[in-house]
Amino acid sequence: MKRITILPLVLLFLSVGAVKSQAPLSLATVADLQKIIAGNKVLIDTQTKTLQLLDTLDQNAQQLKSFGKRG
Known about the structure:
Distance between the termini: 72 Å
Order of helices and strands: HH
Radius of gyration: 26 Å
Number of helices: 2
Largest sheet: none
Mean pLDDT: 80
Strand content: under 5%
Oligomer: single chain
Helix content: over 70%
Shape: elongated
């Protein structure tokens, strides 16, 4: 009985997926994508710097822990 209800849903899903536009990208869309790419590069650079800072903080915390255990 579950096959009967699932089969039409699968067929509907497959038929809806086949109705996508194949139109080429317009110049405005390409420009928008380039802006997004540039924004992503800035974001990745910021995240890289933040991860480096967090790594440095973690190393300093590990050193403090080891010095605390000695004394």
